[in-house]
Amino acid sequence: MSQYALHPLPLAGLARIEHRRVEDDRGAFARLYCEDSLEHFGAPFHIRQINRSLTRERGSVRGLHYQAGPQPESKYITCLRGEVWDVVVDLRTGSPTFLQWHAEHLKAGEGSSLLVPAGFAHGFQALSEDAELLYLHSADYAPEHEGGLSVLDPRLAIAWPLPVINLSARDAMHPWLDDRFTGVTV
Questions:
Q1: Which of 65, 122, 137, 174 is the catalytic position?
Q2: Which end of the chain is more exposed for a tag (fewer CB within 10 A), N or C?
Q3: Alpha-carbon distance values, 57 to 21, 25, 106, 166, 169 (Å)
Q4: Active-site residue flag, 135
Q5: SS3 for 77?
Q6: Alpha-helical segments (H) within 89-182
Q7: Mean pLDDT in the chain?
Q8: Is 65 among the residues known to form the active site?
């Protein structure tokens, strides 16, 4: 029996993963990641880097970040504490869903993760105090290939559930999209 189920979402390659949780009188166990299972579902994902973030204040937004060039990255995101509204934007050149966004509510203890393919920008808004995320990345961080989108770009029109607060200086400087942006190649 598989340790989790993969549920495709409206943007091609994006998926929600539901973990099978086993409980007994001691507590609970769930496998968060299994490379063989993802390959079985046709979504191979090799881990190159693992990161963790803690966002203290409800309403804070991180993102929208992406990595392009020769090292585009996929992400596998799990909420360890609190809850977030996790947002992705399809940036893949030629994609039928180019510049469309999708959001998923991730909550600690619910037993789900988000599988974000390469070529997507990613960000989230904390819906609770002390929201903690675990990120598995398929590529090493390459600052020369990183990019970002403005979380308030009217062309994206992301419907954040709370007023956007606490953007980092870097995230606040991400430009709005214009006609010169043709996407990223993966």
A1: 65
A2: N
A3: 29, 34, 16, 8, 16
A4: yes
A5: strand
A6: 169-172
A7: 92
A8: yes
